[in-house]
Amino acid sequence: MNDQMKERMEDARSKKVVFVSSCLLNTNNKVLGLARYPGMCKEVFDTLHKYDLGIMQMQCPETLYMGIQRWWATKNLYDNVGFRPFCRNLAKQVVDYIQAYEQVGYETVAILSCDGSPTCGVTLTSWDEKWGASPVELDYNEALVEGAGVYIEELKKEIEERGVEMPPFYGLALDDESADMEKILSDFEMFIKGVCE
User: Fold this and answer.
1) Are 130 and 69 within 8 A, CB to CB?
2) Maximum separation of any 2 CA atoms in the chain, in Å
3) For residue 187, what pLDDT is reported?
4) Around Cβ 151, how many Cβ atoms within 10 Å?
5) Are the CB atoms for 7 and 98 separated by under 8 Å?
6) Does position 111 have pLDDT exceeding 90, yes or no?
7) Which residues pair with 19 in a beta bridge?
8) Nearest to 120 by CA among 85, 75, 162
9) What is the pTM of this model?
10) How far apart are CA 128 and CA 125, in angstroms?
11) Is the pLDDT of residue 179 over 80?
12) Hey, what's the torsion of the CAs at 178, 181, 183, 186, to 10 degrees?
């Protein structure tokens, strides 16, 4: 490629992208009662901006499948033959983007999601056999268990099956009101700094 052509094809872009769960960019997609911020978690995006990362918003499987006024649910309620293929189809779209970026030498730096979610948890999800049937008073924090949510499991499977390089996944535990927000954000910045080095 001659210098003139190369110059024409270069601009200010970082060529680094982060895929982000919908509710981190738009808390209006969260199940009612779990939003800790009015619109987006600004501190998370200030960190991404600081490291010159582009942001791709992933779709919210729960909102598209069950709507905004859905009941709270644990993973065992979503882990079914209708919802898993639905999540897989959404995952395919994300991996299409990851492959498109990879083809031109861009880097998918990370996939950010929401720990504790039955669908988008990375290291923390929920499971409780008492959930289901008629709605009753249940404590969501008592249902938290180690593991990934349905959508994250399907996204990882799609990445593996396509032979695309697996980006690091990171879950932000923003649903737990007892969690220390400063520590969550500090740990997150350390993670982003690490993957960008």
Assistant:
1) no
2) 68
3) 95
4) 29
5) no
6) yes
7) 56, 111
8) 75
9) 0.91
10) 10
11) no
12) 160
